[in-house]
Structures are given as C-alpha cells and as structure tokens.
Amino acid sequence: MRQTLSSLLIFGWIWLSETLAQSTSSTPVPTGVAIQGDYTGPYRPRVHYSPPKGFMNDPNGLFKDNNGTWHMYYQYNPTDVVAGNQHWGHATSPDLYHWTNQPIALFPPNSTSGVFSGSAVLDPNNTSGFFPNTTEGVVAIYTLNTPTKQTQELAYSFDGGYTFTPYSGNPVLDVNSNQFRDPKVIRYDDTWVMVIAFASEYVIGIYTSSDLKEWSHASNISHIDLLGIQYECPNLVSLPISNSSETGWVLTISVNPGAPLGGSITEYFAGEFNGTHFKPHDGATRLSNFAKDDYAGQFFYDQPISIGWASNWGYTNTVPTASEGWRSAMTLPRKNSLVDTGIRGWEMVQEIYDVSPILSQQLSFTQNLANTSTEASFNNGLYFDMNITFPEKVTFSSYASMNFTFSTNSTGESVKGGYILAGSTPYTAWLDRGKTSGFDSPLFTDKFSVSQVSPAKRITGVMDRSLFEVYVDDGAVVGTMDVYPTEPLTKFTISTGDLPEGAQITFSAWEIQDTWA
Ligand SMILES: *[C@@H]1O[C@H](CO)[C@@H](O)[C@H](O)[C@H]1NC(C)=O
Ligand SMILES: *[C@@H]1O[C@H](CO)[C@@H](O)[C@H](O)[C@H]1NC(C)=O
Ligand SMILES: *[C@@H]1O[C@H](CO)[C@@H](O)[C@H](O)[C@H]1NC(C)=O
Ligand SMILES: *[C@@H]1O[C@H](CO)[C@@H](O)[C@H](O)[C@H]1NC(C)=O
Ligand SMILES: *[C@@H]1O[C@H](CO)[C@@H](O)[C@H](O)[C@H]1NC(C)=O
Ligand SMILES: *[C@@H]1O[C@H](CO)[C@@H](O)[C@H](O)[C@H]1NC(C)=O
Ligand SMILES: *[C@@H]1O[C@H](CO)[C@@H](O)[C@H](O)[C@H]1NC(C)=O
Ligand SMILES: *[C@@H]1O[C@H](CO)[C@@H](O)[C@H](O)[C@H]1NC(C)=O
Ligand SMILES: *[C@@H]1O[C@H](CO)[C@@H](O)[C@H](O)[C@H]1NC(C)=O
Ligand SMILES: *[C@@H]1O[C@H](CO)[C@@H](O)[C@H](O)[C@H]1NC(C)=O
Ligand SMILES: *[C@@H]1O[C@H](CO)[C@@H](O)[C@H](O)[C@H]1NC(C)=O
Ligand SMILES: *[C@@H]1O[C@H](CO)[C@@H](O)[C@H](O)[C@H]1NC(C)=O
Predict the structure, then answer these.
(1) What element of type H or E holds 396?
(2) What is the SS3 string spanning 441-489?
(3) Is the CB of 187 under 6 A from ligand 2?
(4) Both 90 and 176 in a single domain?
C-alpha cells in the first residue's frame, strides 16, 4: 500500500514536473502585438511604469523620437514573474507618465541566450550605413548573453524603434568574456562613445567608433570608490549645470550586490571627459538614492532625463506583486543637472520631471503649515509639495520636526517619513516602511535616512500604491522605497512642530491620476 502510494506520488510528481516544464517551455512569447495587462490590482502603481505581465528590470534603449514620443525599452521576462528569459519590452509615452505598451522589441535568438541591457541612438546621418532611405533610423546596442560569453550586438529600426532587425555582422564587440555588458552609447563631437562594464573586474571601459560597428578601446576607469561585488549599467553623459548655460559630465555605475545598505544601488561621479578619458573631480562616492529601490538608471539618448528601476536585487524576485501577475516598476522620470555645492564638491540633482500631466484634483492647500497639521484622503495616490523658509540665522528647538504618515483604512498599517531639523541628527530626511505587513525579507530594510548640510527648502513626495518617492530640495536628495501594505494606503496626515518664529511652509497635496484608466 505504502509502496503503491509512494509510486503514485512519484509518478504524479514526474507527470506534474513534465507538464509544467512543457507548459513553461511552450508558453508562446507574443510577437507583433502588445501584451495586455490588468492594471487594476491594489499594488499597481498609477503613475510609475510597470510591465503588463511578467518580470521587468533595467530600463534600456531610452530615447525621444523626432515627434516628441519617449521610447522606453526594458529587461523583460514575458513568461515568468522572476528574472530570466531576457527580452526587450517596449513602451511609448508623450509625457513620460502615460505609457502605451508596445510589442516586444528584441527577442533572444534561442532559449539559452538573453538580450541583456543596452542603449539606443538616433542615426539621422546614416553613420552606420543601415539607413539608405530614412533620417529617423534607430540603432539599439545591447549585450547578448549566452552560456559562455557576453558580446555586444546591434539591431536597427526603420520605423522609429517599433521593430528591429539584428545586424548580420553581429557581434560588434567580443572580448571573450562572460562578464562584459550593458553598453551605453552617446554622441561626442563626430564620434560614437560607448561605456561598458567589465562587471567582475571593477572596470568601466570606454570605446569609440565612427559607424557603431567597429569599436576601438579608448581607456579604462577602474576601482573607483564603492566596489560592491559587480559593476553594471554604466552611463557617461553630459548634463546641464544648474543656473548656467554650461554643461558638465557625470559617470554613473550601478553596483550589485554590495550596496552599503545591502543589495543594489547606483553611485555617480561628476568629472571631466575629453572624448576618450573620464576623470572624476574628486574621490568621493555619492549615491543616487538614500533608500534601496533605485538601480540601473539610464539617461535618454542626448537628453538630461533619466529613469531608474525601482527595485533591489536583494528581494525583487520575491515581492508580493506576483499575485497580480507582474513584478517591478520604474522610478519617476527625472530631469538631472549638476551643482557645484562648494566644499562638498559637485553633486547631481534629480528633479521630478514635469508632473502637471498626472495631477488630479487638489486635496489640500495650507498657506502656512508651521506648528500645525493637515490631512487628506485619496484613492489612486497622493502627490504633496511643500516650500519651506526659515528666518536667517535661526536656531531650532531640539524637537523641531515635520512628519507625514500614509495609512490604510482598517488594517492599521502605515508608511511614514519626515524631516528632523534639530537635536543630534539635524537636517535629516527619513523614511519608514516597517509598519506594513504585505512582505518581509532579510534585505527588505525598514528605515532609511540622509542628512543635509542645511535645512531643506522643499520636500516633494509621491505615494503611488506600492511605491513611495521623496525628492528633497528639488532632487538634491532622493529616496525611493517600495511598500507593500495588505490594503491600499488611502489616508495622509502631515504635521510640523516646534518650528521657530517666522517659519513659513506652503503646503499642497493632489490626488494623482490613474494613467491606466
Ligand atoms: C544560441 O544562440 C547563441 C547566439 O547566437 C549561440 O552562441 C548558441 O550556440 C545558440 N545555442 C543553441 C543551443 O543553439
Ligand atoms: C548630422 O550632420 C549634420 C550636418 O553635418 C550635423 O550638423 C549634425 O550634428 C549631425 N548629426 C549627428 C547626430 O551626428
Ligand atoms: C547610407 O549608407 C549606406 C551604406 O554606406 C549607403 O549605401 C546609402 O546610400 C547611405 N544613404 C544615405 C542617404 O546616405
Ligand atoms: C528602407 O529600406 C529598408 C531596407 O531596404 C526597407 O526594409 C524599409 O522598408 C525601407 N523603409 C522605407 C520607409 O522605405
Ligand atoms: C512622426 O510622425 C509622422 C506623421 O505622423 C510619421 O509619418 C512618422 O513615422 C513619425 N516618426 C516617428 C519616428 O515615429
Ligand atoms: C581594460 O580593462 C579590461 C578588463 O580588465 C582589460 O582586459 C584590458 O586589458 C584593459 N585595457 C587596457 C588598455 O588597460
Ligand atoms: C538657481 O537659481 C534659483 C533662482 O535664483 C535659486 O533659487 C536656486 O537656489 C539656484 N540653484 C542653484 C543650484 O544654485
Ligand atoms: C584626454 O585625456 C587623456 C588623459 O589625460 C590624454 O592622454 C588625451 O590626450 C586627452 N585627449 C584629448 C583629445 O585631449
Ligand atoms: C476606505 O474607507 C472609505 C470610507 O469608509 C471608503 O470610502 C473607501 O472605499 C475605503 N477604501 C479602501 C481602499 O478600502
Ligand atoms: C515626529 O516624529 C518624531 C518621532 O516619532 C517625534 O519625536 C516628533 O515629535 C514628531 N514631530 C511632530 C511634529 O509630530
Ligand atoms: C511653534 O511652537 C513653539 C512652541 O511649541 C513656539 O516657540 C514657536 O514660536 C511656534 N512657531 C510658530 C511659527 O508659530
Ligand atoms: C514650491 O515652489 C515651486 C518652485 O518655486 C513651485 O513650482 C511650487 O508650486 C511650490 N509649491 C507649493 C506647494 O507652494
């Protein structure tokens, strides 16, 4: 009897495994049609992009076409809610918030390879020779991952980035390495410049090309500051300097694992670039985010605009949004610039890109929130903004602070944040996702904070279902945090206390739109 039962169980297990294996391997990946998604689930962000179904990670190939349409591709597993089976998903938007899902743009050649991260460029002058008949040619430059190697390949598009043809001369760059990936290409004078990661050697390689097909090694930058375990997704771009007509250079490197707070994070270096060599202005490590959910950010081709992946490799494959058939969202779009802060050197400022298309009705307006509080109820999500001024040469009482809380209707869960003006940690922004019970994991840290040299002048926050972002001083510091309450957060309160005489805080909150409705 026991034997029979165990045979039956074993037989059943084999049958089930085979059925599952077959159904997985035979799950067709749609070609030529956009994958449909159900965007109504309680964890679905309303204004942050998330994929229709399956698993998404790094943004790829970001560019804006001549008609003003923003194109975003992304690392995409269309057949499962964990990383793997990498394709390039595709979405387009007129404003970086309202996205239309497009058919998958790049497919791996077979089941043992993946189309890994990369970038896209516009080639109006036919430098590549791919475009005999159009000035709207787009070339994608990406890593093909196979079991033995990572090589760099091209695919070109005649129709503005909707469909691509792989180049028959691929690969265009092969150094016989299985840790060589994520090419990001820019135009510098009349050449193409690529930065790429020798991931496990802590080297960012710089290559140049006249036609995107033949690449020459120009220089290496290695072992700069935070190492982590691997370097990924470098970007080297020119950004405007705030309040100036000048531009400066920034190199970003994404590090995984081994971020100071665990898992993955992005560091950046402002510096000088002369077409072949990059030199940071100083030896300091600066992180692009003070929380944990902002990785592999990429800049749009020839634009100071960027988007990051709002998750962390430490837990991304286990977050509870899988119950809605998807995992991972992107950060808000950001407009970036460089600021010379004086003694602290050059910093990157990541302002939220024009939010006017996503603001719905105004929920609250307070002319002066000093020493008082206000609250609001919301459905989709909430955007708040506060401009803060203090009298000159002010001294703060040791309890001077501002706190905000988002809470659920009935479960008692909440997400909190605030700003400490005085005491032992002055000028500190903080976030706390610990009072939510939808998810737990060793690396899913609860609390984050960052200190500033002087008190914040502006604090802007966006609560968007399973994502919260705070931008202090127009993005001088940014915190991006995934949150998983078991019921939607629908109530907001903010209070400030013990502020000095003469403090002035203009506060406003809006309901955000559901961009998928
Ligand atoms: C899959 O494609 C890659 C890249 O073209 C190739 O190197 C590899 O041999 C292929 N594998 C199989 C099993 O065909
Ligand atoms: C294309 O050529 C024109 C004319 O030479 C030049 O002004 C322009 O910068 C070129 N564009 C690119 C992307 O190289
Ligand atoms: C683009 O380059 C290809 C290859 O060099 C060439 O055959 C074609 O005439 C070029 N087209 C234009 C419009 O320059
Ligand atoms: C341009 O030429 C390519 C290659 O011959 C062709 O596939 C494509 O359809 C043409 N595009 C236009 C707009 O004529
Ligand atoms: C821009 O719009 C025109 C007119 O609608 C269209 O013909 C063209 O293909 C579009 N270009 C791109 C790059 O989408
Ligand atoms: C650049 O770094 C790579 C990876 O470590 C190395 O293989 C290559 O030799 C270096 N090139 C030069 C010129 O140093
Ligand atoms: C830029 O100028 C504005 C207006 O004068 C000022 O409020 C702001 O602090 C300046 N920003 C920087 C980074 O200097
Ligand atoms: C760029 O900088 C490197 C390193 O300082 C130098 O060797 C090279 O000559 C410079 N190139 C140009 C075009 O100035
Ligand atoms: C929260 O409670 C309010 C008032 O009782 C109700 O109108 C709303 O639908 C509830 N929202 C959720 C998400 O349960
Ligand atoms: C903000 O929260 C902190 C920590 O709970 C508390 O010490 C402080 O008094 C609060 N401030 C206000 C204005 O509520
Ligand atoms: C806020 O309250 C404190 C005492 O709690 C008081 O000293 C201060 O003047 C008040 N500030 C404002 C702007 O009313
Ligand atoms: C804060 O200041 C910015 C820039 O001056 C302005 O656009 C925004 O509307 C202000 N927000 C509030 C709540 O006053």
Answers:
(1) none
(2) CCCCCCEEEEECCCCCCEEEEEEECCEEEEEECCCCEEEEEECCCCCCE
(3) yes
(4) yes
Report the nearest atom of ligand 3 relative to the CA of 126. 1
Q: Are strands 504-512 and 489-497 parallel, antiparallel or unpaired?
A: unpaired
Cα–Cα distance for residue pair 166/124, rounded to 1 Å? 19
Distance (Å) from CA 273 to ligand 8 centroid: 9
Look at residue 4 in the predicted model and tell me its pLDDT: 36
User: Which of 409, 410, 413, 492 is the pocket-test mutation for ligand 9 (most atoms within 8 Å of CB)?
Assistant: 409
Secondary structure letter of residue 214 according to DSSP: S
26 and 130 housed in the same domain: yes
Q: Note whether residue 157 is domain-resident.
A: yes
The answer as to whether 141 is a domain residue is yes
**Residue written as token pair 């950060």:** 331
pLDDT tier at 421, thresholds 50, 70, 90: very high
Q: What is the CATH number of the domain that holds 88?
A: 2.115.10.20
Residue nearest to atom 5 of ligand 5 (CA): 67
Pairing label, strands 54-64, 326-327 = parallel
Question: Do residues 456 and 472 lie in contact, with contact meaning Cβ atoms separated by under 8 Å?
Answer: yes
Q: How many CA atoms lie within 13 A of 218 on its CB side?
A: 19
Same domain, residue pair 250 and 369:
no
pLDDT tens per residue across span 140-189: 999 999 999 999 999 999 999 999 999 999 999 999 999 999 999 999 99
Q: Specify whether 150 is located in the same domain as 198.
A: yes
Please list the active-site residues: 58
Single pTM value for the model: 0.94
- Tell how strand 458-464 and strand 326-327 pair up: unpaired
Domain residues for the domain of 277 are 5-36+51-320+327-351
Task: Annotate 251-266 with b (16+ C-beta within 10 A) or e (fewer).
Answer: bbbbbbeebebbbbbb
Q: 214: CA distance to ligand 3 center in Å? A: 17
Tell me: the pLDDT tens digits for 304-357? 999 999 999 999 999 999 999 999 999 999 999 999 999 999 999 999 999 999
Same domain? 424 vs 295: no
Nearest CA to ligand 9 atom 6: 409
Domain membership flag for residue 444: yes
Q: Is residue 44 part of a domain?
A: no
**345 and 401, same domain (yes or no):** no
With a CB cutoff of 8 Å and minimum separation 6, the contacts of 396 are 421, 422, 426, 455, 498, 499, 500
Instruction: Give per-residue pLDDT as tens, 436-462.
Output: 999 999 999 999 999 999 999 999 999
Q: Which atom of ligand 3 is nearest to 128's Cα?
A: 2
Judge if the beta carbon of residue 124 lies within 6 A of ligand 2. Answer: yes
Cα–Cα distance, 217 to 471 (Å, whole number): 38
Tell me the CA–centroid distance for residue 408 and ligand 10, in Å: 20
pLDDT band of 7, cuts 50, 70, 90:
very low
Q: What mean pLDDT value characterizes the chain?
A: 94
